[in-house]
Amino acid sequence: MxxxxxxxxxQLPPGEARYPDEPSTQDIISRDxxxxxxWVRSESYQFLGDEDISTDRYKDPDFAQREYDHLWTRTWQFxxxxxxxxxxxxxxxxxxxxxxxxxxxxEDDKIQAYYNACLHRxxxxxxxxxxxxxxxxxxxxxxxxxxxxxxxxxxxCDWDFPHVDRDKFxxxxxxxxxxxxxxxxxxxxxxxxxxxxxxxxxMAHLDAWKLxxxxxxxHVSKVIPxxxxxxxxxxxxxxxxxETHPQVAPSNADANSQYDIYGEHVNRFISSLGVVSPHLxxxxxEQDVVDQFTVGDASILGDADRTLAEGETARQRMADMxxxxxxxxxxxxxxxxxxxxxxxCFSYTVFPNTFLFAGISLPMVYRFRPVPDDHRKxxxxxxxxxxxxxxxxxxxxxxxVHLDESQSFTEAEGMDPGFGEILDQDTENLxxxxxxxxxxxxxxxxLGNYQEIRVRHFEQAVDRYVGGGA
Length: 470
Ligand code: FES
Ligand SMILES: [Fe+2]
Known about the structure:
The chain is of the alpha+beta class and 470 residues long. It folds into two domains: 2-56 and 213-466, Alpha-Beta Complex (Naphthalene 1,2-dioxygenase Alpha Subunit, Chain A, domain 1), CATH 3.90.380; 77-190, Rieske [2Fe-2S] iron-sulphur domain (Rieske Iron-sulfur Protein, 3-layer Sandwich), CATH 2.102.10. Helix content is 25%, strand content 24%. The protein has 13 helices and 20 strands. The protein has helices at 2-8, 25-30, 56-59, 61-70, 194-198, 200-209, 228-233, 241-244, 286-291, 314-330, 339-343, 417-439, 453-466, and strands at residues 53-54, 77-81, 90-96, 99-107, 110-115, 131-133, 136-138, 145-147, 152-154, 173-179, 182-186, 214-224, 258-262, 266-271, 345-350, 354-357, 364-371, 374-387, 400-403, 444-445. The strands form four sheets. Strands 13-14-15-16-17-18-12-19 form an eight-stranded mixed sheet. The chain has a seven-stranded antiparallel sheet with strand order 2-11-10-5-4-3-6, with no helix packed on it. Strands 7-8-9 form a three-stranded antiparallel sheet, with no helix packed on it. The radius of gyration is 24 Å and the shape is globular. The mean pLDDT is 93. The structure holds FE2/S2 (inorganic) cluster (FES) and fe (ii) ion. Fe (ii) ion is lined by residues 240, 244-245, 426.
């Protein structure tokens, strides 16, 4: 308790205390056999204040409206993956609140995004959430049509529209940028370029991951009964692991996870696996950690003897097992990949509504969008991005499985049941949290200085946009 007491006594600056007498994430990673790259080995924490976070942001419909007016209209958002629209004419409709955009491949190496609305009397040209292939975008009402490059193709009875200059009736566009296989859109013509918005440090991290060489192996969507920000924040810290996911704690260094912030729009945690939770110190042996280790298709691990040699750590054995397992499962060469990248959870928030995970064991993307007209509900999507196999044959992009609110994540095809259980645990708390915030006498959330820094950093970004700044 020495450093906590010191912080309370004012001897340590706020935010500097860490779980006492435990190795840090960097200490754990520094002992690995296959060394981690620079983006893993860096730290970027900053104390951002300790005042409560006001809860009107989660329960006030006016706040949600201000988000639509000032936040969603001005931020870069992950609309789809490039493999969703591989051929010229392929399109994907990205919806956010009342806004809707047709993202389409116009040329082999050119993607554009149009406001999804007819320039005659406003009908949507494609249904929300739809995707497919088009040779033209034709309105289902009176049949006006546009070429896939957005130029007007046909105005029915154009003799009746002498006031319409068809050369000017091109579909209005939003900005598009492509990065690491992701297609981003931004409604704000004055927003900074995506690389500037994300910042140079994160761009360097992303460059190392080569997510452009992945494909969507599994895609699941579910409506969650809580505000979109609350839903995101359920995944921003490992502080909840010991209470919410007790089955994980014996092999997760939860309370000594590392938290970092990068500029205004990106933050992360690194949570190490193969290391016992500090909360369970003395209760679980290294051998226990290896013995209870199962992930994915357990049969791939075979019946190999798991007895640890003298001095061998559970973490090292798990890294070695994971390397073999994932090489076989994905037909890829992981010999140059560090133990940390194989084992650990690297969770990055890309403001406003995307999480990217860099590791091999949890190669995920999360996307969170408010349900239109209901600020208490969120569309939560989980995508697993697997490396493209060595033979270069890229499997089909997975179709999205839509779960209804009562279904378990374990029911989704392609979802590892153990991981589905974790997502169920995460999301089952959210109904109670949303309703508890509304029922509470207390009008603010009280956050830990270190372990909940991502929540504060994220909400400060929300405030900058909603307050009209940014
Ligand atoms: S509303 Fe689209 S053609 Fe009339
Ligand atoms: Fe969790």
